[in-house]
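Ops channel
N.P.: pipeline sanity check, posting one input/output pair.
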């Protein structure tokens, strides 16, 4: 089973801006389908944008061969640098 780490829409606020979960899910799953593991959160509506990521879970999935989406790669780098 191929696993991808990507963003999943979680909800929206009154001004129609979405919050996101960072999740590990099967590559065959839908974007907003059932996920295997919750790794963190991302809220671009806050100023500055809020992001949290569980590094231990992320490393576990990467060791098992999961691939990160480009967006999650850039978020992980920004969180690591700050």
């Amino acid at each position: 089973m191929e696993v991808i780490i990507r963003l999943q829409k979680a909800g929206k606020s009154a001004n129609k801006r979405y919050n996101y979960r960072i999740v590990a899910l099967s590559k065959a799953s839908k974007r907003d389908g059932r996920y295997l593991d919750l790794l963190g959160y991302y809220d671009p509506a806050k100023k500055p944008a809020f992001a949290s990521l569980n590094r231990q879970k992320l490393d576990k999935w990467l060791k098992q061969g999961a691939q990160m989406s480009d967006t999650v790669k850039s978020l992980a780098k920004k969180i690591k640098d700050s």
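N.P.: looks fine end to end. The CA atoms of residues 6 and 69 lie 5 Å apart.
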